[in-house]
Design brief:
disordered C terminus, about 25% helix, alpha/beta, Rossmann fold, SAM-dependent_MTases_sf, Methyltransferase domain-containing protein, 7 helices, 6-stranded mixed β-sheet
Length: about 260
């Protein structure tokens, strides 16, 4: 039996994605959803609150929060999210799916019955009058897994199912892992983090501005005049974001994908 991966050997949600989602300076953040994303926000030094219930009205005063980060789905009430955001604050969204270009990831999702986010998961945010232009970036990252850590991961994903059905799908996932014969060496779980953010609109017909901007510095297109960069968009030493092709491709389409996978 494989030994569990030590905590320091488990990569967290990419710090580069956190910096893009929230900003480089410390923020007051409400995190809804994924504990992995919440942990990465805390590590980055932000003041993070995690409400017990993620449905209905948020338990925070009006204009009291810099950023709301929602992972694993769009918040139910975008009006309420806009209510708690300070002027210049924004909503950030994260869909963290296994990379469907990798054959073993596709097979694992079939075993688990996982639904992957569609082509336009943030479309309700685009249409919401409370928020401005929606920016998008994606990051690919890899998580090493072995027999025991894979079981822990998939059981957490299937926690909403009845125990018998959960056990059946976990057994199928572990059989798939065993079929690859990696043993103690483990495998690499490929993830794609699709991230979105949009600044709250303070007044109708007024272009929103971020916390780090002054309203007078921004044009109606949401960009700073005279080529002056917005603070959150200042170049930093990050992993190069990637654009994910929505069409599922087989590993044969790219030599770069032929890494230990069938």
């Amino acid at each position: 039996m494989d030994t569990p991966l030590a905590p320091q050997d488990r990569p967290t949600f990419p710090a580069e994605a956190v910096a893009w989602l929230v900003g480089a300076s410390a923020r007051t953040v409400v995190s809804l959803g994924s504990p992995e994303v919440t942990a990465a926000l805390v590590v980055a030094g932000h003041d993070v609150a995690t409400p017990q219930a993620t449905r209905g009205r948020l338990p925070y005063p009006d204009r009291s929060v810099d950023v709301v980060v929602a992972s694993r789905g769009l918040p139910d009430d975008l009006d309420d999210v806009a209510r708690v955001l300070r002027p210049g604050g924004h909503l950030a969204l994260v869909w963290n799916d296994r990379d469907q270009r990798i054959p073993w990831a596709r097979k694992l999702d079939r075993c688990l019955g996982t639904e992957v986010a569609g082509d336009e998961p943030a479309s309700p945010l685009v249409l919401c009058p409370h928020f401005g232009f929606v920016s998008e970036q994606s990051w690919r990252w890899w998580e090493p897994v072995n027999h025991e850590s894979l079981e822990t991961l998939v059981r957490a994903e299937l926690s909403g199912l009845a125990l018998e059905e959960c056990d059946r799908r976990v057994a199928a996932a572990l059989a798939l892992y065993a079929d690859y014969g990696r043993g103690a060496d483990g495998m690499q779980m490929p993830w794609v983090a699709r991230c979105y953010k949009a600044t709250v609109v303070e007044r109708p017909w007024q272009a929103p501005h971020s916390i780090d901007e002054h309203p007078g510095e921004q044009g109606v297109d949401g960009r700073a005049h005279h080529g002056k960069p917005v603070a959150d968009e200042k170049p930093v030493d990050l992993l190069e974001p990637v654009v994910v092709d929505p069409e599922v491709q087989d590993a044969s389409d790219s030599d770069l994908l032929l890494i230990d996978f069938r």
